[in-house]
């Protein structure tokens, strides 16, 4: 089976991890700060807080922004459940904004209309999570403008997007947001096995997230309520978690970051090749907004169902049967039973549902060979009834 995504591990990655195993620190040593500095430096953010997953990063980002009971978090239905669940972890309510039919990202137009209505009803969101689907950045300038106008905070869920750019600046520079979150799960662009990071330019948000990832405990006298009792002293000044990243993970991350540019360039080469090889098939290929340079975590095609006699499900199943590990990103979150119980109806977000009925993620990862890519294309051609 050709998978839809796969990590790329070299001997240097392995050596970096082994070196940590033989060192004094398996956790809370020098590698985590080194990895944080590396990512912050690369993306142009002032601070970085490494954690054990992007899910944890989203959680502490929302907490740092003060999200709590009685508040609302809004995000897109076309995302992994974690982009929405972080609101529920904080005791807030979650609502959704439909996608733009061109980029499949949260639509600023739909956002504006929903904000207008919410203002009248006194239920404006406190936090909006903008997800850069497939690695293509959202229209952050428009979202940032609306944030100022309606007074909400913005978290970029850039789990798909490290190494990508928006209007010429790396995603993570957080020019139009408060915090940006990355994921280092093995299918993502850079991996630490499990892992995530929150970056921000705001000193207070960084300090708060730093506390929350490790029990709310500090050893910094300036954050304590009184002078330390002695050299052993620490204080718990907030209710935090154990969301720490290990030194092994950070060492792998540092090593992987050396190849980030390569990773993204290779993904662009593969996407360009798909674009050419699939151009005559009844598929809508990924459209890239001129403001964006995508990290290209995913390559999603949409079936033009009017132009083929076979259905989405049948085409998907046939691809899997033929050894092509396609996937679907994502099942609209508002249709998950847990969310449905909150009262969401499928028809609430029609663009998201239309996308769901047509989308297929084709294999896209650093080690995908041209030969494998040709195989993906050949199988698709056969299914869609077009010979080469
Ligand atoms: C992968 C992913 C997450 C969660 O990342 P983890 O590191 O696995 O917690 C969150 N949001 C999006 C959009 C993702 O793709």
From TrEMBL:
GO molecular function: pyridoxal phosphate binding; transaminase activity
Pfam family, one: DegT_DnrJ_EryC1
Entry's family note: Belongs to the DegT/DnrJ/EryC1 family.
Annotated CDD domains: AHBA_syn
Top-level taxon: Bacteria
N6-(pyridoxal phosphate)lysine modification, residue list: 188
Residue ranges of coiled coil: none
Example GO BP: polysaccharide biosynthetic process
InterPro entries: DegT/StrS_aminotransferase, PseC, PyrdxlP-dep_Trfase, PyrdxlP-dep_Trfase_major, PyrdxlP-dep_Trfase_small
Active-site residues from the entry: 188 (proton acceptor)
Keywords assigned by UniProt, alphabetized: Aminotransferase, Pyridoxal phosphate, Transferase
Protein name according to UniProt: DegT/DnrJ/EryC1/StrS aminotransferase
